Amino acid sequence: MPLVEATGLSKTFNVSGREVHAVSDVSFTIGRGETLALVGESGSGKSTTGRMCLHLLEPDSGTVAVDGRHVSDLSGAELRAARRNMTMVFQEPYQSLNPKMRVGSTIEEPLILHEPDLDAAERRERVEDILERVGLPREYRLRFPGELSGGQQQRIGIARAAITNPAFIVLDEPTSSLDLSVQAQILRLLRKLHSDLDLAYLFISHDLHTVRFVSDRIAVMHQGRIVEHGTTESVFTDPEEMYTKTLLGAALGITPRPR
Amino acid sequence: MSLLEVRDLRAQFDLHTETVEAVRSVSFDVAAGDSVGIVGETGSGKSVTVRSILGLLRAPGRVTGGTARFNGDDLIGMKPKALRRLRGTEIGLIPQNPFGSLNPILTIEKQFRNVLGAHGQAASRETVHGRAVAVLESVGISQAERVLAGHAHQLSGGMAQRVAIAMAFILEPRLIVADEPTTALDVTVQKQILDLLADLIAADQRSLLIVTHDLGVVANYCEKVVVMYKGEVVETGLVRDVFVNPSADYTRSLLDSVPKPGERW
Questions:
Q1: Domain over A4-85+166-249 is classified CATH 3.40.50.450
Q2: What global pTM score does this model have?
Q3: At A89, which helix (H) or strand (E)?
Q4: Partners of residue A217 in chain B, C-beta under 8 Å
Q5: Inter-chain CB proximity A253 and B263 less than 8 Å
Q6: Which of A22, A130, A183, B110 maximizes the CB count within 10 A of its CB?
Q7: Dihedral through CA A126, CA A131, CA A134, CA A137, nearest 10?
Q8: Structure ipTM
């Protein structure tokens, strides 16, 4: 049984009186420890799909099952409890952190909610452990987000998403706002967590180089639909759909163009 | 003599608590017909470098030394009025965000009229209209009439960038400076815009100076590259040499940061 099973997800937004079909009939599965990349351009519906996976956004129709349980059937309290197991990392690390909270408190919050039996000393121990795991000194728990670089802020976002030992993380463009050298560091960190914790990722990205690097399978989205779906190598080396070919053709490699 | 010769350029920001040397002794050339990419990460000084050259650096930033000779005339210290005349007629600018450079409340046609008027080329409505239609068509806009009658918000990002490019090209400048011209665009649109720029440059032996953080843009659209790091040029040369055999450690680490085809994490 796959860890995540999304079936027939659809979402329509009402934009100033006009209906926009953001996501239409999207289905996919993700196995335990697997990385599925959702790739597409802006407006293709990939972020909306990612949010529906965690029920941060209610689908108009379709279902998501995580670990065999339909997320839409869960009550409010059950859904909150289920969020221990499925979390999200956002594109803009600074905007996803509370600027007035020390990062230690930000990382600690999911523990207070999901593991209420822990006392303060135990939580602090866990926070310091996860800080080390994401490559930051333990003392950084006392820092504020504004004192950190973009890469360090994203490490905090990842620490918060990983502290409850989830099985599944939605990564929504986790490296897009970062400099190239920092992107490489964050990818290395995500890979390490992936193998250490046997995590499954839904990796949302518009960057084909990154997607090829990290994913086992790829779903290409265009205008709210998955237009092509396959193993990473097959999609890159033998794309079937015209749109996939266009997308691959537009990705600029770093091999100098002969002139 | 190159079209643009930058020598020992220095710029700094005087902040309350400290002075930040954002550009430290930067030198490079752009010859006629050249496409040069300045590449670097956040804070490398690449944007400050071009703003300094064009007299667009704002307080608390200021140029503290060096020269930038365009056609032999030093742009640094040139009177603002003379520099304004050069910008537009001789040096065209393409912005990162076209919506930031287009006026939201004027029709596109009115803005073309303003561009020409500001550079002493005011003409009858018919003449301006004809020139605007011609330049819009040259940047691949088929419905030029409709675009001219409309406003910026009615355009997609790619179309708005085409309009901004048309506004830069209407005065037929010899040097085009583009600061992250496609960063805000989707990959398929990015390729269209870069292909268009390359064609427009090549057609008339114009020169292009692109500022970008994207190594792919430089590899595919520039002949020469200037690699900047922490305010300094760490390496400069032909793209086909630098990208294949970088001499600076920083350039090598930057190139290594890009996932290679077939490589897995």
A1: no
A2: 0.90
A3: strand A86-89
A4: none
A5: no
A6: A130
A7: -150
A8: 0.84
